[in-house]
Amino acid sequence: MNVSSRMNSGAQTIHMHMLQLGTAALLSDCVLLCHAVRALQLGLSVVPRVDPRVPRSLAEYCAIYREWLLLLRGRLAQSGLELPDMFDPEQDGDEELMRFALCYNILQARSLKDALVAMDRTVLNIKEFVVWYSKYSFIKPGDLEAWQRIAWWEGPDSDGHLWLMIDFRAAVQASRTHGPDLVARVLVSFLEYGVRHLVPELGCASTVRVVVDASGVHIGAATRARAVFQRVGHVVNRMYPCRLQVHIGWVYNASNTCC
Fold first, then answer.
1. Which residues are CB-neighbours of 194 under 8 A, at least 6 positions away?
2. Percent of the chain at pLDDT above 90?
3. pTM score of the predicted model
4. Of 216, 206, 213, 201, whose CA–CA distance to 255 is shortest?
5. Cα(153)–Cα(208) distance, rounded to whole angstroms?
6. pLDDT digit string, tens, across residues 124-169
7. Cβ 174 vs Cβ 151: under 8 Å
8. Taking Cα atoms as reference points, which of 185, 181, 179 lies closest to residue 137?
9. For strand 151-154 and strand 163-167, is the pairing parallel, antiparallel, or unpaired?
């Protein structure tokens, strides 16, 4: 191959690479444009810039993301979903929507694409919650009194928070007798009663604190009871977002006592 042919071949290769890069850039621009068009169709024109490191109340977040929450309600209405009372705007329902939204990085959204992804994931989680909530077998508040050896509410404390106290040893014993599914239902029902009834009735903070007293529990028994708290943990993460503060206290005594 002579010099001229090699130069022509190299030029063609460079040209092909440039075309590929140009095509990739064009596709990327098209994707961004599609997100922008969809956002404008929904009415979302501006993504609030919020520093996630600065603590704010749910009411403040609702004011900042007012437009976003209106669109979220519109999406849910279009799906024909019948929302439970806790989402009623007259009952601080926007704060309940905001709790779900905070789980999907809405505070970190810096583009229309990010905001739409957060909205899509929030809609799916709320749909999952509505189905779960309508079918879950909550234990009635009056019947929870029979389970107060396992869990009970205390407070509010000086900060306005209620405390859900859980006796791990009693939970282990009850799971042996009644099975882990029932004990998990008991704990979830206590949480439901606290956040839906006690918090509004007493005017407490919307987040609750939990203490699990595991003193005197053998490590083997704690391991066997893992299924109970795995069930409860899954429900809390998916269905009660932003309800538990990160601070969860464990009082653990590494003794050889068996429950």
1. 153, 162, 164, 208
2. 36
3. 0.76
4. 216
5. 10
6. 999 999 999 999 999 999 999 999 999 999 999 999 999 999 988 8
7. no
8. 185
9. antiparallel
* 98-132 per-position pLDDT tens digit: 999 998 888 888 888 888 888 999 999 999 999 99
pLDDT digits 0-9 by tens, 196-238: 999 999 999 999 999 888 776 666 666 666 777 788 888 988 9
The encoded tokens of residue 147 equal: 């389970």
Non-local (6+) Cβ contacts of 159 within 8 A are: 205
Query: Residue 61 has which token pair?
Result: 């977040």
